[in-house]
Amino acid sequence: MLHTGETAEVKNVECVSKKTSPPPKYTVDSIITLMQKYGIGTSATMAEIVKKLQNPKRQSIVLENGVYSSTAFGRKFISVVPDELKSPELTKNIEEKLSQIGEGSLTKEDFLNDIIQDIRSYIDTVKGEADDLEKEIGICPVCNTPVLEKRFEYACATPECFKVGKHIKGKTIIPSMVKDLLQHGQTGWIKGFQGKKGAYTAKILFKNGKIEFEFPEQRHR
């Protein structure tokens, strides 16, 4: 056995070429089997739990071609949640405590006090990071990766590829404008940009991989 600072002679080196494969994605059946394994929910609530994860307002997973995939929001959300809170063991422990209440070995008051203390601790941990959750706006027309709504901008995985600030010339750029830009290559006419001569109207264009502007007077030339 080697110790720190010691050296050894290498007599033989063998190069082995191998390829790793990503784990298989969950199907409608296998995700329920996994939930049963870790005691997440009951037979009456498991399907509803999966359904809530697909709610468009906070969509964490999507079902495509019979398999589930995580969304950008789901991946970001799980990254800021404390390990204890996202562990299947937490749900399993809660289910066990509920059983103890039913058996009379644990009081409802003690259970609720423990839960409230844990929730307060989790909220304090997550509160500072929750604002950084990114929402998917559309697909980048150049690299075909999701364009996400970040804190100060809308950008794809490669910001040099597609990036639009949330505030341009005194005007707030809202998600619907960016969706138009991604789908049609331009926004509609946007009023309220601020310049040296006052407010003006313009369109935002995405041409040849760059953000440009079109003004009403250009249209009539």
UniProtKB/TrEMBL annotation:
Gene3D superfamilies assigned: Topoisomerase I, domain 2 (1.10.460.10)
Domain Topo IA-type catalytic: 1-123
Origin species: human gut metagenome
Regions annotated as coiled coil: none
Pfam families in the record: Topoisom_bac, Toprim_Crpt
Swiss-Prot/TrEMBL GO biological process terms: DNA recombination; DNA repair; DNA topological change
Protein name as annotated: DNA topoisomerase III
SUPFAM superfamilies for the chain: Prokaryotic type I DNA topoisomerase (SSF56712)
Gene Ontology MF term list: DNA binding; DNA topoisomerase type I (single strand cut, ATP-independent) activity
PANTHER family: DNA TOPOISOMERASE 3-ALPHA, PROKARYOTIC DNA TOPOISOMERASE
Keywords: Isomerase
GO CC field: cytoplasmic replication fork
